[in-house]
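Please, structure for the following, as tokens.
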Amino acid sequence: MSKKSNAQPLFQLIKSLTKSEKRSFKLYVSRINDESEVKFITLFDILDKLDEYDEKIIIKKMSNISKAQLANLKSHLYKQVLLVLRISHLKSDVDIQLRENLDYVRLLYKKGLYDESMKLLNKIKLTANNYKKNIFKLALLNYEKNIENQQMLTLDTTTTLKLDRETKSILNKINVAQSFFSVALRMKAQFLKGGMARSEDELEKINKLFYSSLPEYDKAHLSFSEQYNMCRAYYWYSYLIQDFESCVKYTEIWVSIFKENNLTHLRHAEFLRGLNRLLQSLFRINDRDRFNMYYEELLEFEKLYMKAIDSNSKQLLLRCLTIQTLNKCFMDGEFKKHEHNLGRYLLKIEDSLEYIDRNNQLVIFYKSAILYFGLQQYDKCIDYLDRILADHDEHLREDLKSFSYIIYVIALYEMRDFKKLEKIRKRAFVYLRQRNILGQFHNIILQFIKRSESIMPLDLKGELKNLRLSLEPLQDDKFESKPLLYFDIMSWLESKISSRPFLEVVKEAADNK
């Protein structure tokens, strides 16, 4: 769920509940035989029906309690809702299962029932092994050592050496995996701020940061968790430096290790993220055959698991389906063919925005803007661009915002709205200069747009050809060609020069790649 600093936590929590979770809560509370049950249900129902949190309405509807009592009731209700959620998700969330069973091991241990504690511990070990949960395995080893410590008659050197070896092995695996995870987070944070590397200096800094942060490891003997986190780290690093072939390499390993360890249905969210990033990487290198193969795999995942996965994973799957169907639309050059399905996905996205992080919201808005630009529905295109540019987090996706300005001025050019165009063009220059991201590509386009109104109709094709000639050398520049990753401006120019529909040129370009 997106973070809202001004939202009341209890209200936000209740609004996130599914119908099934709400039923479970009411059933649970109905078993409490005291006066607080009625107050819980009343407060819960009031909050559930509100569109926005308003304490005045709550106090008015619960006139028999004071503000201090309301504060206590909200705090207690919050804990009760979380408790019911914990119970509701017990079967579907292995981490919650493992923690609960660890608590039972602890309780049996405290009662002096060491044999029973050890029996339960050995059962939990099987689950932790199946799900590759090394941190839980470490906790289990700690309990096992405590239990063995109480076995004065059976404790022997062989057992203690075995436990010591296992502990050291798990600790090393956790250390390597967590080090990779930390590197992945640093690379991702770098990407979320400014996008991919924009210069040789940035590239050098990223290389230095990445390689100096990597742990020592033996690639041939990595555990599942180490491999998984290594793939995450190398994926974000490769994406940052625009090495999309390596992105494909590491995300294919990511997807394959989940399959090899039979974890696609057990840890579906992590598998889905890997599959989504693999598709994104294949889109970047325009490998249509492999993209289509893995896209079918995504659709098959939806058929097999959509009903079984939790609400959070359902939102993740919807996001993946939306983004990758947009990518498929762009790769195939078949905008009209996918318009209906994408329209359905985008309606569902609108209903789920509060559960989607801001970065992915911006990605979906941007790709949707490109979709509607291609369909010549410029008003819809601009609506999505406005939503991107309304985001005032200066540390989030400067790259998407900068390219949104470029698409914006081109859309206004197509609409012949020169008054608004000049206003947006000036805003674009200010934004790009302030963030030191005004590249040659941006500059050439914006300068052309600036003087486009004064170009005589008979001279327009010649000027567009000159613009294309100015941009063509930049296609081979790793950093200056970056805008082409976000919008096929060369096809747009060709459509203007050859007086053909933009979508026809896009489809032709897609078929010739």
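The CA atoms of residues 217 and 496 lie 54 Å apart. The two ends are 39 Å apart (CA to CA).
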